[in-house]
Write a structure and sequence with these properties.
Elements lengths: L29 H4 L9 H9 L25 H20 L22 H4 L4 H4 L1 H15 L18 H4 L8 H14 L10 E2 L14 H11 L11 H12 L16 H14 L10 E5 H13 L8 E7 L4 H8 L3 E6 L10 H11 L4 E8 L11 H14 L2 E5 L16 H7 L2 H4 L4 E6 L12 E7 L3 H13 L5 H11 L9 H26 L5 E2 L8 E2 L2 E2 L3 H9 L4 H13 L1 E2 L1 E2 L12 E4 L4 H21 L2
Parallel strand pairs: 1-12, 3-4, 3-5, 5-6, 6-7
Antiparallel strand pairs: 2-8, 7-8, 9-11, 10-14, 13-14
Length: 633
């Protein structure tokens, strides 16, 4: 009776083979060193070969040798040859004893891919199975494999040295080291580690609802209806909310917020934004074709800067930004490898913008770059000033004179608290200055759902209006926007509710007006409270908070504290803010993250906490500051 025919398995690469197609740099070599020198064959071909008289056995279940030969990979040729003899000896012995043929590597061989002991350690020869004639081949294979060199780890492709240097240069103080430290302290409090406080108060960022501000009911009603249209049949929702939800959904693909929109944004929402701007500016027309819906205002600002930056050397684009500034600007400038051109706000004059300072900055910048962009934040962040109409006219005239592209960051346009101040949009003032300006000065202005009375930061809704843009550049801008497909459609819907709120005579008007006035009234009260209490503390001076939602007080730091900061390799105001966090649990952002004149120190703190909590925060800052001065006097 003839011995049973050897069993064969598919010759495709086993799942545990770490080199499925070819030897890989850094591989342990086990797989490649065990490859058969014959070409890879199908299961049917293998069976035909096994039936041929005198056919050499094939180590099935193993791929043919790669381009480097039997020992290619990270093992050497000798290891490959020895391993081949071992496989061949095993196969011959099995067939001579009437045993089934080899069926591939044992399961333990999978560990070889991880750089384990290798074949010699994982697959020891079986003397009883191999017989005396095969012992020498097995021994030779084992000896060779034992001296196989250890696999070395391949170097990382992406390291701090090889990464994009522009990204490495980006800094964003609002979520920088001080905020990371606050997160660590919160985890310690959760684990029961004792601190001189029971909670971390994150006063570092303008996140209204995180600080306890309640959402505007009408906005959330429309968003709920848009998100779950079945609610349109519910009597619990007012008809004016349903009307707006239906209009938004009808303009969406498939009548769903889950669909993509046009890259520039949903058409009917852009129309509503244009109508809002016209109302706000007293009849100055706005064209929906000049409206671009964005993922918050930040997305619009970075997109416009991306299309503005060009040139190299002395012709590289210079971007003029206020100091103190919102760190988004310096971050995007670094990312784009543009040139930052600082102009300083006048702290002694309530952070006013002085055109003579603009002239100084632009003339000095012309020696090393091409100043092309002028950024204005009004109302100011972090400084809280509101620019007068006269100031805005001077800035527009300066931009016209110097041929600068204007960026007007107006996300705090609803946040004006001082009775002596009023928000004036750059768009309105530009048009009222006459056609010489209104037809020539290029202007991009920005708004958002995140600030104002809405505080809907998480929806990431926003828009930009860009006027006097060259027609060919408009096409390039749309192309650039199309790369990211579209802004979140839910954020677009939220923006629509901001620019298209209930009006007199509609069912929701009274409640909406009451909630809006309550939010803005509380912010005005907290702005005054913060200014007054800070100015009662020796060594702290705070300018009037005319608008926005932050205080940016100037703080006195003694010489010994400056020296201690240097010993810790910190900026003095970072040292101050870190100590404030560690001793009180209050998280604020050092002024060095926003920029400040040499030798002055500040921090930015939001005024968003509820009134009673804000009083507690201010009292803790007062006590800390007095103790800090005594300690380092």
């Amino acid at each position: 009776m003839s011995p049973p025919r050897p069993r064969h398995v598919r010759t495709s690469t086993p799942a545990y083979c770490p080199v499925p197609d070819r030897p890989r740099a850094g591989c342990c070599g086990t797989c490649s060193s065990l490859r058969s020198p014959q070409p890879l064959q199908s299961g049917q071909e293998n069976r035909r070969q096994a039936r041929r008289p005198g056919a050499a056995p094939t180590a099935v279940g193993v791929r043919a040798q790669g381009p480097g030969g039997a020992g290619a990979g990270c093992g050497d040729a000798a290891a490959g040859a020895g391993a081949g003899k071992l496989l061949q000896a095993r196969e011959l012995t099995r067939r001579s004893k009437g045993l089934p043929g080899a069926t591939g590597f044992p399961p333990q061989a999978r560990d070889a891919a991880g750089g384990g002991a290798g074949l010699a350690g994982l697959w020891s020869p079986d003397p009883q199975l191999l017989g005396p004639q095969s012992n020498s081949a097995a021994a030779e294979a084992s000896a060779v494999l034992k001296v196989r060199p250890e696999r070395s780890r391949r170097e990382r492709i992406l390291t701090l040295e090889s990464m994009n240097p522009q990204v490495k240069a980006v800094e964003y103080a609002v979520r920088g080291p001080i905020v990371l430290k606050a997160g660590e302290i919160e985890l310690e409090l959760q684990r029961g580690i004792k601190k001189p406080f029971t909670e971390v108060i994150r006063a570092n960022i303008g996140d209204a609802q995180a600080m306890g501000q309640q959402p505007i009911t009408f906005l959330r009603q429309v968003m709920a209806l848009c998100t779950y249209p079945n609610l349109l049949d519910s009597p619990s929702f007012p008809e004016d909310a349903k009307k707006r939800a239906r209009r938004i959904l009808q303009a969406c693909g498939g009548h769903s917020l889950g669909s993509y929109s046009a890259s520039q944004g949903v058409n009917c929402i852009r129309e509503d934004v244009a109508a809002y701007i016209t109302r706000r500016d007293g009849g100055v027309p706005a064209d929906p074709d000049n409206i671009y819906l964005t993922t918050g205002a930040s997305d619009g600002i970075s997109t416009i800067l991306k299309i503005l930056v060009s040139g190299g050397g002395k012709s590289r684009t210079g971007v003029m930004i206020p100091i103190p500034q919102y760190p988004l600007y310096s971050a995007v400038i670094s990312e784009l490898d543009a040139i930052q051109v600082n102009y300083y706000l006048d702290e002694e004059n309530c952070w006013a913008l002085n055109v003579n300072e603009l002239r100084r900055a632009v003339q000095e910048a012309k020696d090393h770059c091409d100043p092309k962009v002028l950024c204005i934040i009004n109302p100011g962040n972090p400084t809280g000033q509101v620019q007068s109409r006269k100031c805005i006219e001077d800035v527009i005239h300066f931009a016209w004179e110097e041929k600068l592209f204007l960026l007007a960051d107006e996300v705090y346009q609803d946040n004006v608290y001082s009775p002596d101040c009023r928000f004036h949009s750059f768009k309105k003032v530009l048009y009222e200055m006459g056609p010489e300006y209104s037809s020539n000065v290029e202007l991009a202005s920005f708004h958002s759902t995140s600030k104002g009375y809405m505080g809907e930061c998480g929806y990431r809704g926003g828009y930009m209006e860009v006027i006097n843009l060259h027609p060919e550049i408009k096409g390039q801008l749309v192309k650039l926007l199309s790369v990211r497909l579209c802004p979140p459609v839910s954020g677009q819907a939220a923006m629509d509710i901001v620019v298209n709120p209930p009006v007199a005579g509609e069912e929701s008007f009274e409640q909406f007006s009451r909630e809006k006035e309550s939010v803005l009234g509380n912010l005005a009260k907290k702005a005054k409270l913060t200014e007054d209490l800070f100015n009662q503390v020796p060594g702290i001076h705070c300018n009037p908070l005319q608008g926005a939602m932050y205080a940016f007080p100037r703080i006195f730091i003694p010489v010994k504290a400056v020296e201690a900061a240097q010993a810790h390799q910190m900026a003095p105001d970072m040292f101050y803010c870190m100590k404030l966090l560690e001793e009180t649990g209050i998280c604020v952002v050092p002024g060095s993250g926003f920029g400040q004149r040499e030798g002055t120190y500040h921090f930015r703190m939001t005024i968003l906490p509820p009134v009673e909590k804000l009083k507690t925060v201010l009292q803790k800052v007062k006590d800390f500051h007095i103790n800090f001065l005594e300690k380092y006097a």
